[in-house]
Amino acid sequence: MTWLQNVFNFLALNLLRLFAFLPYTLTIYIGYGLGWLAAHIPNERAKVVKTNLRLCFPNLSADEIDSLALEHWKLFGRSVIERSRIWLGSEPRILVNPHFVGLEGGFMALSALGMKNGWPRGAGLYQKMKNPFFNQKMVEWRDRFGAKSIERQSRLRDLIRETKNGNFVVIAPDIDLGPRDSIFVPFFGIPTSTVTSVSRLAKLTGADVCLMTSLLKADKSGYVCHISNPIPDFPTDNPEEDTARLNKYIEDLVRERPAEYYWVHKRFKHRPPGEPSLYN
């Protein structure tokens, strides 16, 4: 069925190109519409979103959870469509977009600004796609302004090399990657499997650690990317305390912007020994 896969790749690629050059307002509303559909069509991820919201906001009523889930799906749909502009649009159209409805814009904006201003390049992790064609395309698009994409399953040495070369390294630590190089620390009061790579990388390289957030403007016309001053007294000699501290930073921000967080991910998938799954 190689021919069928090739046809799919051709159609999907040209659809992305179309979205990249449609008027931005139209792109936004197409994304909202797709998000609305995803929220109302029964699917596993819709259940994951509501489970995550119930776990993190136990004081919300069922109606409030439904409303928040719908708002999240609309913003998530928007971010998916916006990736076409982020990946394929001309440089001035790059959207400044941790996992808050899409990390891509912030990473790409950092890369484009770096190339224009002679900054060190940005390096960021990516999750390998099952489709080899689009995996290759995604890496090409992400790296077109001089960035370096590193597969998430790669060894820490790739990140160490980039950091020691004086480059920016963008890491989103709020993803459950399983037990490897992870520990359980609180997130919304729930023991949550979290990678310790930020603390370990900073310790090995002496790099400063800053918080980067890409959040919607008040009028939802675009995004604002904030990069903080270096976190004081980070890292320490205790990776567990460092990782818990990062989770608390993220949690505080999520409480301010709950609809914009990446709730489609099974953040609490892996549990401490003896604990049942939270998604059954």
Any descriptors?
single chain; 280 residues; alpha/beta; three-stranded parallel beta sheet; two-stranded antiparallel ribbon; 7 strands; 49% helix; 12% strand; globular
Short description:
It contains 9 helices and 7 strands; from the N terminus they run αααααβαβαβββαββα. The chain has 280 residues and is α/β, with parallel strands linked by helices.
Description of the molecule:
This protein has 9 helices and 7 strands; from the N terminus they run αααααβαβαβββαββα. It is of the alpha/beta class. The protein has one domain (2-260). It has a 3-stranded parallel sheet, sandwiched between helices. A hairpin with a 2-residue loop joins strand 4 (182-187) and strand 5. Helix 3 packs across helix 4. The longest helix has 27 residues, at 62-88. The chain is globular, with a radius of gyration of 19 Å. Residues 92-105 have low confidence and may be disordered.
Distance between the termini: 35 Å
Q: Provide the number of structural domains.
A: 1
Poorly predicted regions: 92-105
Q: What structural class do the secondary elements suggest?
A: alpha/beta
Strand neighbour order, sheet with most strands:
2-1-3
Largest sheet: 3 strands, parallel
Strand content: 5-15%
Overall mean pLDDT: 82
Summarize the amount of helix as a percent range: 40-55%
For this entry, what is the oligomeric state of its chains?
Answer: single chain
Q: Using DSSP, what is the number of strands?
A: 7
Shape: globular
| SSE order, one letter for each helix or strand | HHHHHEHEHEEEHEEH
Count of DSSP helices? 9
Radius of gyration: 19 Å
